[in-house]
Amino acid sequence: MDRAQKQLWQRKVRDRSVVILIIGAVLLLPPVGSIALIDATLMGLPVPVLYVFAVWALLIAAAISLARALDQDVPSDGETPEQPDGDGP
Amino acid sequence: MLSVNLLLLTCAGYVVLLFAVAFVVDRRTRRERISWLQSPVIYTLSISVYCTSWTFYGAVGSAARNGLEFITIYLGPTLVFVGWWWVLRKLVRIGRAHRITSIADLISSRYGKSSGLAVMVTLIALIATTPYIALQLQSLTRSYQAIVQDANGVETAFVIAAGMALFAILFGTRNLDANERHHGVVAAIAVEAIVKLVALLAVGVFATYGIAGGFREVFANVTPEDIRGGGDIFGARWVTLTFLSATAIICLPRQFQVTVVENIEERHLSTASWLFPLYLFGMTLFIMPIALVGQQVMPAQANPDLYVLTLPLAAERHELAMLAFLGGFSSATSMVIVAAIAVSTMVSNHVVMPIALRLFFGNAPVSGDVRALLLISRRMSIACILGLGFLYFWISGGSDALAAIGLIAFVGVAQFLPSLLGGIFWRGASRQGALAGLIVGFVLWAYTLFIPSFGGDFLLSAQVLAEGPWSVELLRPQALLGLTGFDPIVHAVVWSVGANALAFMTVSSLTQPGQLERLQGTLFVDVFRSAGGAPTGFVSHSAQSEDLFVLAQRILGSDPARHLFDELARSQGTGSGSLPHPTDAVISRLERELAGSIGAASANAMVTRIAGRQTVGMSELIEIADETQQLIETSRQLADKSVELEHTAMQLRTANERLRTLDAQKDDFLSQISHELRTPMTSIRSFSEILLTTPDVTAQERQKFLSIIQEESLRLTRLLEEILDISRLESGSAALELEDLNLQHSLSTAIDTLSGMVNASDLTVRFHQVSEHLAVRAQPDRLRQVFINLLSNAVKYNRAENPEIAFKAMQDGEDILIDVVDNGGGVSREDAAIVFEKFARGGSAGPEYGAGLGLPISRAIMRAMNGDLNIKFASDGTSYFQLRLSGA
Predict the structure, then answer these.
(1) N or C: which end of chain A has fewer CB within 10 A?
(2) Mean pLDDT value of segment B35-60
(3) CA distance B310 to B295
(4) Exposed / middle / buried, residue B813 (Cβ in 10 Å: 0-12, 13-18, 19+)
(5) Is pLDDT above 50 for B624?
(6) Could B68 and A81 be called an inter-chain contact, meaning their C-beta atoms sit closer than 8 Å?
(7) Residues 6+ apart with CB under 8 A from B868
(8) Over the Cα atoms of chain A, what is R_g?
(9) Chain A residues lying within 8 Å of B81, measured CB to CB
(10) Distance CA B510, CA B513 (A)
C-alpha cells in the first residue's frame, strides 16, 4: 500500500470511528434513547433493558469490525507521519 | 457462618499470590521482553481497573435504587473507546512522544511546562481521588463487616488502608523507570481483573439461575418503576452521568496511568477499543438480575450495595461468598494501588520535587541524591493519599450509597477535560486560560458538591448548606444562584464544568501564549505531523557535559545514566569512554529522559537551573527561523540549477550522438560513392589505355571499345546527376512546383514511357480502384519518375512466372494512398530496413542493377511533394510499396 492509499485508508477509518461514536451517542442518549422507554417486555425482558444492551452489543460489534479492518494496516511505532488531520472532526 | 480465619487466610494467600506475580514479572521484564505480558489483552485488562468496588458492589446498589441508570457509568467509556481514533489515539501518541508521566505532566507540558498548572492539576487530582479511595475502604470494610458482624468499621478501614499503602509502596516505587511503567503492577491488576469478572459472573449466574430460575423469572414481577428507578432514566441525570463517565475514563489519574503511560504499543488501543467495552458488558450483564433478586429475597433493611456478597451468604454458599469477597477485594485493591501510584507520581514530581529543588539545591547546583529523595517523596505521597482517603471515610462516616461518593470524584476530575481537550485540539489554548478554567471549576466543584458531601461535618455547617452562607439564598451550595429543580450531580456539573470551559475559552482567547507554550502547543496539536520526540526547544547552552552527567546520575541512577551517555557519545562518534558534547540534541534527549522520571516541568527546571540552559528569546528564534528559511531557499535554488544542468547535459549528449551517427553516415556515403564511381572509371581507363597502347586494334574492336567507354561515361554522368538530384531534394533547395494532377493519367503516361521494357518482360499491369476522378497534388515529371522507378524495379526484380504489377488507389482522409503490389514477393523484412538507404540493393540483386539510388531518390521526391514512400507488409508476409500524396 503506498502512502497516498494509506492516508486515504486512515482517513476512512477515522471517519467510520467517529460515525460509530455519533450513532452510539444518539441511540443511547435522549431524545432518541427515550423512545425505548416503554412498559413492555420482549422475550420476557423489559424493552428498555433489552434496548440498551442491544445497542451496546452492536457498538462492540462495530468496534470489532473496525479493529479487524485496521489490523490489515496497523499504525505501528515506525509509522510514517500521517498527513495533517486538521483540528479534529 | 463463614469462618473469619479462613477468610483472612484466603485473603493473605491471595495477596501473596499478587505479590508473587508482580515480583516475578518485574524481575523478568528487567532481563528480557515477555511478549505475552505486553499483549493487547493484558493492556485491556489493566484498563479494567476502571471497575472498582463501585462496580462490584455499588452498581448493584445503584440498580436497586435507580434502576437502569447504573449503566450510564459504562456507556460513557464504551463510547470513548469505540471512538478511540479521535481522542485516545492522540493522547497515547502525545504521551509516548513526550514521555508523559501523568495527566498533570501532560497539561503542564502542553502549556509551556508550567509548574503552576502542574501543581493545580495535582491538587485537584489528590482531592478528587480522596473520596474515591474512601469508597474502596468503605466497601471493603462493609463487606468484611457483613461476614464478621462485630468488626469495628474504623479499625478495619485503617488496617485495610495501611495494607494497601504497603502494597502500593512496595510495587509502585521499587524503582524509577525511565518511562514510569510498572510491568509487575500491571500484571497483578490483570490477574485481579479476571478474578473480579469471574466472581461477579459467578454470583450473577447463581442469583439468576440458582435462586430465581432464569432471566425470564427474574424480570417476571418487575414493575416499570423498578427499571426507571427514580424516574429519570434517559433524562438530564442520564446524560450527565454518561458525560461524566466518558470524561472519567480519560481524566481519572489512574485511567490516564494505565491507558496512556503504561501503553507499550499504540496498536494495543485498537484491540482495547472493543475488548474493554466487551469486558464492561460482561461486568454489567448480571447487575440488574442480582439487584432484582436481592430485592425479592433479602430483608428490606439489607444494604443493596452488598447484595453481591450477602446473597450467597444468605444462601449458605460459602465458597461463592468467598469468591465474591475476593472479587470485591480485587476491585478495591487494584483501584487503590494504581490511583496511589498515579497520584503519588504527580505529587512528588510536581509538588515535592520543585520545593526540594528550591530548598536544597538553590545554591549548589548539584548536590545530594535526587533519586533517593524522589523515592522517599513518592512513598510518603502514597501514605498520605491513603491517609486522606481514610480521613474522608472517617469524617463523612461513610455514605449510604457507594455510587454517590464515586460521582463526586468523577465531577472533580472532569475539571481537567476543557484544558486537556483544548490542549490537544486547539492551538490557541493558553496557560492562563487553563489555569483560570481549573481554578473556577475546582472552586465550584468543592463548593457545590465536595464539601456538601460531608453533610455539614466539614468546613460548611448543615445550616449553611440548607440556607446558604450568611443566609443568602442565592449562594446555597446545591442551588447556586437559585438554580433549583436539578439533581445535585447535574447541578454541580452544569456549574463547575460549564464555568470551567467558559473561563478556559474566554481567558485563552484574551491572552497571548508564551514562546515555549506556542512551541509545545504546536507539537501537541500536530503530533501526527511530526515523527515524534521532536525537539523540546531551541536552546543556547553553556552546559558542561560533566554537570549533565552528574545530574543524570542523581535522577536516573548511575548505570542507566552511564548507558545513556555512552549511547549519546557513540552517536556523536566520540567513543563510549568519553562524554558527549552538550549539543541541543543531547540536552533535549536528556531532558526527555529526566521528564520520564520527574515530569516535564521539573526536568526543564532542573536542566535550566543546574546546567545553565536558557530558552532563546523570540528575536533569536526569528533569526534562527530566518536563517533556516534562507538555507531552504538557497538549497532550493541549487536543486533547480542542478536539474537544469542535468537537462542541458542530456541535450548535449543526444546532440553528440546524432553528430557521431551523421559523421559515420557521411563516411559510409563517401566510401560507397567512391566505390560506385570507380567501376565505370576503371573500365573507361582500361579501354582507353588499350586504344592508346595497342596500334593494331581492328576498326570493329575500336568501335566496340569506344561504345563501352561512351556507355560507361553516360552511366557515370547519370550517377553523378542522381547524386546531385538526391542531395538537392534532401536539402530542400529544389522546391517543386506542385499542381493538381489526374492520377490515372499520370500512371498511364509512366507506363507508356516504359512500354518497350514492359512488353519485353511480359509484365502485366493492372489497375484496381483507380478512379478517373482521383486527383493529387504533385509535380507531373517527378511523379512520373517515381512511377517509372517502381515499374522498372518490378521489371528488374520480379522473378515470378507471370510477372504482374497492380496499382491500387484509395482515399485516406485528405490524402491519397497508392499501393504498388507485384507478385514477386517483395522485399524481406531485413531488406525493407535498408532499401531506402543510398546505394543499397535488395540482398538478391546483383551488381548489374544500377547504383541503388532509385528508391532513395523516389522517397526524396515524394517527401519533397509533401507525400511519402514506404514499404508495407501484407498479412501473408509479402511486401508492397505504398505512396502517400496529398489529394487535390
Answers:
(1) N
(2) 90
(3) 12
(4) exposed
(5) yes
(6) no
(7) B859, B862, B883, B884
(8) 18
(9) 63
(10) 10
